[in-house]
Design brief:
13 helices; 2 domains; 4-stranded mixed β-sheet; alpha+beta; single chain; UDP-n-acetylglucosamine1-carboxyvinyl-transferase, Chain
């Protein structure tokens, strides 16, 4: 396994570009199974581990896939598979979004239950509720979801959960409903840009969807869908991570392809902290004074502050004078990064779903271990400002969602490189 070595206290300056959104690519790849015609996806970060995993699953189903650095061509004609096995789903929860399209197209599906997650419980009850509502017969046995249906039928489905709407549950029901008989109304649907991107791709395939981007989706089922060509939206979480990288190093960077319309809550909080944010042609510029202000952040479903940027915000506040409160309302246990940041000198106390962060003048470099994708990013940000050398182990988590992050940070002036773990 590899690790990243970072020598901190370097201001970041320059321009960095973000790629297509991983969380859009995964359900859209699943959606290609709804047709037998070829589809082409562009602006895809093909080297990411999660995308490689999804391509392997599609190939195991009998689908033909051709990929280069940023384009995937999917030819599903004649595929016969209908199972997403544990060996794939165990490494990537998003594989569960194959349930809807496989059931709609193959009339049956066998998908491994995702199991536990280091960031806390992430139940799939809303997925099962939605699929059952439109006519899927579901049984759970031996760690798998078994689904079958002769005919899916339109109905009203309410997808609200304890922590808000579910992105992947919305995606699953939406995809299955495109081939259902009649009209399906999905209430309390997820409004995330990635769900909008999926709906727009499905529309290009011939699906009839109203209310895209709203909390209520109306889907009129059609007999069949055709292939389509689609460019994936830019990754708002990757963009936000680089905005925080610029802020934490008190730097001056421009993040190309970052969209202000997808990052409203993030930009608002950065400005509240004293960061200067400027929308420029084709991107966002972040300029940061030496002194910032503490802020309170609460994660919420879109358009609220995204849970996938909570760890990065915690890292920034750990070196901001004063006391900040970071409250996690999506995954209340998502604070695995806190104990590792404490090894670097961060002063953070956990109280229920909140982190009380007392900013320190300086972090110190230390060996730390990544527990998940976004925790990896937060530890790297902390390393960028820490005095001395930081070693971040288990960066295979990072490779699930960030493409060549160390090279791109180095291009901005960071002293960062990759080594093999001994």
């Amino acid at each position: 396994m590899d690790k990243l070595i970072i020598v901190g206290e370097k201001k970041l300056k320059g321009t960095v570009s973000v790629k297509g959104a991983k969380n859009s690519v995964l359900p859209i790849l699943a959606a290609t199974l709804l047709s037998e015609e070829p589809s082409t996806l562009k602006n895809v970060p093909c080297s990411l581990r999660d995308i490689q995993t999804m391509m392997r699953i599609l190939k195991s189903l009998g689908v033909s896939i051709e990929a280069d650095s940023d384009t995937i061509r999917v030819t599903p004609k004649g595929y016969e598979g209908w199972e997403a096995p544990y060996k794939f789903v165990s490494t990537m929860r998003a594989s569960v979004c194959l349930l809807g399209p496989l059931l709609a197209k193959q009339k049956r599906a066998r998908v491994s239950l995702p199991g536990g997650c280091v960031i806390g419980p992430r139940p799939i009850d809303l997925h099962l509720k939605g699929i059952r509502a439109i006519g899927g017969e579901i049984t759970l046995a031996h760690g798998y979801i078994h689904a079958k249906a002769k005919v899916l039928h339109g109905t009203h489905v309410y997808l609200g959960g304890s922590f808000g709407s579910s992105v992947l549950a919305t995606a699953n029901v939406l995809m299955a409903a495109t081939l259902a008989k009649g009209t399906t109304i999905i209430e309390d649907a997820s409004c995330e840009p990635e769900v909008v991107d999926l709906a727009q791709f499905l529309t290009k395939m011939g699906a009839k969807i109203q209310g895209i981007g709203s909390k209520v989706l109306e889907v009129e089922g059609v007999r069949s869908l055709h292939g389509a060509e689609h460019a994936i939206i830019s990754d708002r979480i990757e963009a936000g991570t680089y905005l925080f990288a610029g802020a934490i190093t008190r730097g001056d960077i421009t993040v190309r392809h970052a969209r202000t319309d997808h990052l409203g809550a993030v930009i608002d909080k950065l400005r509240e902290a004293g960061v200067q944010i400027t929308e420029e042609k084709g991107g966002i510029r972040v300029q940061t004074p030496k002194s910032l202000r503490p802020i309170d952040v609460t994660t919420l479903p879109y358009p609220g502050f995204p849970t996938d940027l909570q760890a990065q915000a915690t890292a920034l506040m750990s070196v901001t004078d004063g006391i900040s409160i970071i409250t996690e309302k999506i995954y209340p246990d998502r604070f695995m990064h806190v104990s590792e940041m404490a090894r670097m000198g961060a002063q953070i106390v956990l109280e229920g779903p909140s982190a009380i962060v007392k900013g320190v003048r300086r972090l110190s470099g230390a060996p730390v271990m990544a527990s998940d994708l976004r925790a990896s990013a937060a530890l790297i940000l902390a390393g960028l400002v820490a005095k001395g050398k930081t070693e971040v182990a288990r960066i295979y988590h990072l490779e699930r969602g960030y493409e060549k992050m160390e090279a791109r940070l180095a291009s901005l002036g960071a002293e960062i490189w990759r080594e093999k773990e001994k």
